[in-house]
Design a protein that fits this description.
This protein is α+β, with helices and mostly antiparallel strands. It has seven helices and three strands, in the order βαββαααααα.
Amino acid sequence: MDISIYTTPEQMGISSAEITKVVEGFEANGLSMHSVLVMRHGEIVAEGYAEPYDKDTLHRMYSISKSFTSMAIGLLEAEGKISINDTLDKYFPEYIDESTDQRIAKTKIVDLLRMASPFTKGSSYKGDTDMDWISTFFTAKVGKEPGSSFLYDTSGTYVLCVIVEKVTGKDFLTYL
């Protein structure tokens, strides 16, 4: 893997030898690293891609997106822009009407962070025919009180990403 350096790691207080050691350790242990990017203080200090990948190669992120999402929510709370105890009706009034189950409307951000939505079955979108994932979240069948029990449901993470975008006025990745 070739590594590009935009500013020296040492200029940012990082050892370039340690970055090299980490990458070599991944390779020595047979770990499939498609890419590596190291940033500090907004500066890229190292970037590299293993063949046949490059910076434009798209990758499925799977559950790591939940970590990025929770980080963004934590940053917004630290900035005083949201509270994890805010309910969804605050951010999605356009999806709340008399037919909306109030357990969805009163679900808190913290419930979604804990994967404790009011659903007993995932509320994710309905395939390629229904791309309005927020709408399907607010119309999904509810089966329990929000916060009462764990259910792995990616749609809650998507809702949190949309909150980040609504609050910041930026797309999710730009905010991060």
